[in-house]
Amino acid sequence: MHYVLATSFLSQIVTAQARKSVLTLTDLSGAQFSRESVTKAKEVAVLDRPYVKRAAIVGAESLPTVFYEVPRSSPSGNSRALGHGRKRWSG
User: What are phi and psi of 77, to 5 degrees?
Assistant: First the structure.
């Protein structure tokens, strides 16, 4: 539930910025996700898309498989998922 609340709060900050001006870095190391949190994250990614210039995720290995669709549909199409020395470019 905390993740869902934080995601909503952060989305308000992102959407208050100029379009294509926000750089995001998300640390998901050791995080656990519920169906609700994955759904909310996908919704927020779509709403935030016009405002985000680049997005990066650290600790992506903790993400459920279904979540990997979000970085591919990122605003720039060039999101980088980083985890324990691995780099994966999507887009």
Answer: 75, 5
Instruction: Give the 3-state secondary structure percentages of the chain, helix then strand then coil, rounded to 5.
Output: 45, 25, 30
Domain parsing of the chain, residue ranges? 2-89
> Of 27, 89, 39, 28, whose CA–CA distance to 63 is shortest?
28
Radius of gyration of the chain (CA): 12
What gap in Å lies between CA 45 and CA 48, rounded to an integer?
5
pLDDT beyond 90 at 16: yes
Structure tokens at 75: 């605003």
User: Where does the pLDDT of residue 74 fall: very low under 50, low under 70, confident under 90, or very high at 90 and above?
Assistant: very low
Neighbours of 66 (CB within 10 A): 12
